[in-house]
Amino acid sequence: MSAHSSKSNSRAHSPVSDGAGKEDPQLMQSTSSAAAAAQPAAKPNNTAKSTDPAGQTIAEAELEGRFKVIRYLGKGSYGTVFVAEELATGKQVAIKKIPKCFDNLTNAKRLLREIKILRMLSHHNVIGYRGLLCPSIPATFNSLLIVFEFVDTDLAKLLASDQPITNQHVQYFLYQLLCGIHYIHSANIIHRDIKPANVLINADCSLKICDFGLSRSTLSPSPQAPQKKTADDEQEAARKQAEQLAAASVPKQTRQVSSERVSQLQQPQKLARELTKHVVTRWYRAPEVILLSDKYTAAIDMWSIGCIFSELLSMQTRAARRALFPGRTCFPFSADNNPLAYTDQLDQLNVIFDVIGTPSKEEIEKIDNDRARSYLRSLPFKPKIDLPRRFAGAEAQAVDLLQKLLFFDPSKRFTAREALEHPYLAEFRQMEDEGVYNANAQQSAGVDFAFEDQPITKDQIKALIVEQILIDNPQAKLNDFFPNGTTVGSAAASTAAAALLAKEAAENHKRKLAAEAAQKQ
Predict the structure, then answer these.
(1) Residue 201 pairs with which residues in a beta bridge?
(2) Active site residue: 24, 152, 154, 193, which one?
(3) Among 60, 208, 380, 425, which residue has the fewest nearby CB atoms (within 10 Å)?
(4) What DSSP state is assigned to residue 72?
(5) Cα Rg for the chain, rounded, in angstroms?
(6) Pairing relation of β-strands 80-86 and 129-132?
(7) Which residue(s) pair with 126 in the sheet?
(8) How many beta carbons lie within 10 A of that of residue 467, not counting itself?
């Protein structure tokens, strides 16, 4: 099974580190309490500890004698996660079990997408992929086990607490989040589901982005917007930065953030309450996604990060801590008939415009959806609110960065690179943390997103997932999965032919974008 290397969780410039580089034990206890409070109480029966409330468990035969399940951790959108011990090393890992993974074609594609993307990425602010376990009965398998590095808790649980944090914690969390998304975008990947539940946090405050099931590669032939800041622009900037980093000597870490400058976090109470609000993805959804634009870019992730940033700023006090855009419904997904009649004041767009103001005529005309333009033109004018007043306890530079992450026009919205260069984060910047994607042979193995933009059958998806299993388990045999040799043959041949067509379409699409860009110049 392949395993990606990752940097140590304990970063030298973490705000929970003292001058000697040691972790703040009170802060670690506080963050660990967040994880513990959200987990079910341990029961004396060992079987009960490793079984989720719905009865899902991992059989010993499925673990290949390499892991021992410790306890049930939680349930995701399409799988159940367990904490396990890797017997060879004694280290904890997270194992996600996806049952009935081929019953739903959409979920199967999502699973394949996440595996391929995780195999590509290797960054200390992205969840570490440890590989797929080989099914115990390959010929009839219909569930899959994915091994990840174990992370203590997630940002949703921290946000749901009444625990205050300091400005330096906000800076450190945001900086890591931006480093992670900068790396992801440099790999031509849009995450598309950045929200607190998909931001994992360790006891030392190191941060990891997870859940790539809704992500997309911007190199696919699906239409993407030739906006001011495209993925190609980001990739070119990333290449330049990589050259600069390669040419420069590694900077010495001469500064430490002293724990004396960071207020110690209080013991959180009842951290498991009100967690459901943070799975409401619409709260972190960019306006162009709500308006069903076909031309969205990586800027949608930057909007989501802005929303999370606003919640982190609200955590500096115990008063008025709330999401910035807590919409109840979401036009046009929730509107049944005429959008002009849709007047719910808690509609997601209305909630957004209550804060950033209604878009200008020029911004409305950029929207490529006729129905959405009609809706926007019908709205009464709303001025933007005074954000410095809304976040009165925050630094002026923090509010300035927040505003630049929440522009309605995605072409004006800050990119990850621009956000990293903002003065608010200057204290925490380390060039080695801001690395960009640089594919190697192992990461590139099996990375092909042709399946995204073509009709595909259940057998074809299964063949492609088996291919991923074989990469991580070279001792396994293809014939073990397809004893008669016909299913995989037909599926692989059909997929290969479709992949060639998809690649050709992708190249044509890139040439078309280049021609359009040349005409505009």
Answers:
(1) 153, 207
(2) 193
(3) 380
(4) E
(5) 23
(6) unpaired
(7) 209
(8) 20
Token digits for 139?
């010929």
> 3-class DSSP state for residue 17?
strand
Rounded to the nearest 10 degrees, the angle between the axes of helix 167-186 and helix 299-314 is: 170
- Using an 8 Å Cβ cutoff, are 195 and 278 in contact? yes
Beta-carbon count within 10 A of 121 CB: 22
457: which DSSP letter? -
d(CA 60, CA 69): 9
Closest CA to 348 of 404, 409, 280: 280
Take residue 214 and report the two structure tokens written for it.
């809704």
Q: What are phi and psi of 209, to 5 degrees?
A: -90, 135
Segments in 191-347 forming alpha helices (H): 231-247, 287-290, 299-314
- Report the distance separating Cα 495 and Cα 509, nearest Å: 20
* Residues near 17 by beta carbon (within 8 Å), at least 6 away in sequence: 10, 11, 23, 24, 204, 256, 257, 259
Tokens of 272: 């498991």
The H or E element spanning position 387 is: helix 387-390
> Phi and psi dihedrals of 510, rounded to 5?
-65, -40
Residues written for the chain: 521
Contacts of 96 (CB under 8 A, 6+ apart): 76, 79, 80, 81, 82, 145, 146, 148
Rounded to 5 degrees, what angle do the CA atoms 72, 77, 80 make?
20
Judging by DSSP bridges, how do beta strands 216-217 and 129-132 pair with one another? unpaired
Asked about 301 being catalytic, the answer comes back as no
Residues with Cβ within 8 Å of 116's Cβ and at least 6 positions away in sequence, in order, are 446, 447, 448, 449, 468
Look at residue 258 and give its three-state secondary structure: coil
Residue 347 forms beta bridges with which residues? 329
Q: Are 451 and 495 in contact (CB under 8 A)?
A: yes
Sheet strand arrangement including 153-154 = 153-154, 199-201, 207-209
